[in-house]
Task: structure prediction
Amino acid sequence: MRIGELAERAGTTTRTLRYYESLGLLPARRTGNGYRSYDEEDLRLLQQIRTLRDFGFELEETRPFVDCLRSGHPAGDSCPASLEVYRRKLAELDECIARLGAIRERVGTQLVRAERARAELETAATAPGGAPEPHCELAPPGQ
Amino acid sequence: MRIGELAERAGTTTRTLRYYESLGLLPARRTGNGYRSYDEEDLRLLQQIRTLRDFGFELEETRPFVDCLRSGHPAGDSCPASLEVYRRKLAELDECIARLGAIRERVGTQLVRAERARAELETAATAPGGAPEPHCELAPPGQ
DNA sequence: GTAGACCTTGACCCCGGCGTCAAGGCCAGG
DNA sequence: CCTGGCCTTGACGCCGGGGTCAAGGTCTAC
Result:
């Protein structure tokens, strides 16, 4: 199949597939006229990548899984390298959750304190405002 | 004081201060020769910004706090707009923590499953005796 | 008078993961 | 033959929060 069909079947875009190819993550064969050509196996690899990415894995982290599948294993996580990525990700998630929890505590404390301080000053009502979209991207040990 | 001194006292860089000014977050007066000039009040504002940023607030989110301080309030969170930011941040943090927790569960489950699958293969493939390192002889990269 | 430490503006670079043109090739249907 | 829909490569944009030059102005100390 060609790039457009693969993109559609995987629920992504052609731009994304070209990008993955540029990373060497999902190379494509070529037909006579230079068009990229993919098969069902490529669809599986791509699905593996997209699934992991939905979990918040970076593209580079999906590479062991893809290599694992390509080397003939039944699942992308059948190889030690993939398990290692799982473990690293777990540690990363734990640390991230702990950090966010600590911040949550401190912000919560600040809010209560500030609300109390205001209550003492005056009992004016605050106007409720619109609520923009909260966004959360799981960032690794970002420094 | 000039920009270098303020930066040093606040533990940041001159580049950062110029950046904040470009955002209109921390404007500076100018002396005759064009140098930026700051006072102790600016240091307080800057400290408020840096503190919130360390909590993971985006720069734009610190604006209400800075405005609050500048309008003469004793603390940056003495104004309703700041409290609103606190509340939004709490909700954001809660949602983020919950999402990460859910992912953590799923990744953990996957790891256990994959480890068990591998253990079955190992015991099936390796004869009785010592159990060496769970090392898989997969062709590294390049295939 | 000159070194050197400070200051100014402007401009490009970084990170990941693509979105979005732009200019042009290839192929099928009417 | 033309249109339209796919495909190709290349290149710039974006997001946040600055880092890091570059080229030059200003002030102080010796």
Chain B has five helices and two strands. The two ends of chain B are 62 Å apart (CA to CA). Residues 20 and 26 of chain B are 6 Å apart (CA to CA). The longest strand of chain B covers residues 29-30.
